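Metallothionein, pasting as requested.
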Amino acid sequence: MPKCDACGNDYDKSFQILVSNKTYTFDSFECALHTLAPTCTHCGVRIVGHGLEKEGVMFCCNHCAEQEGVTELRDRS
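Structure tokens follow.
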């Protein structure tokens, strides 16, 4: 059985995700998110939804973007 790239667990129901020509193996979505989800530049939370981006810098929400001085972004809610 393939081992999880995040935690090393050997699990018979593991799955693979291909990102930028690199294949990752995970035993849970939690491990996949921990490894692949970007983090907010301001608060450090993992961005699981759409998030916001300015010149390659990621934010989880408009509030965090504004705290970093980025004022022209808006959430799409």
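Note for the archive: The mean pLDDT is 92.
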